[in-house]
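Q: Convert this sequence to structure tokens.
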Amino acid sequence: MEAVLAAARQAGWASAQLHQEHFAGSAIGAAAADSFKIKLARSGRTVAVGHEESAVQALAAAGVHVPTSCEQGVCGTCLTRVLDGEPDHRDLFLSPEEQMRNDQFLPCCSRAKTACLTLDL
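A:
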């Protein structure tokens, strides 16, 4: 990307005409990633999410498939409805207003502020 921008500048393009986007989520620090549980509303099962794994990883290990793509909280592929509990939103997909509603969750990168999240799975 830097090479393209440099070539455009060299060709005389104004800065206002140059646009770039970066598609990557923020890394989750292990110290800030508390363990929590996910209750699956449809089966009543509970899945523990360790402090060093994502909710998607814990669910997959328990045999629960959640579609993913970026696994960084950017694309929204894994968007899941929250029925109870408070998510710790660490994604870049949901708007601040959507995050405040606490009714959706991206299990690829987000965590829980409460000990348990009940998901529509």
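The helical segments are 2-10, 55-61, 96-101.
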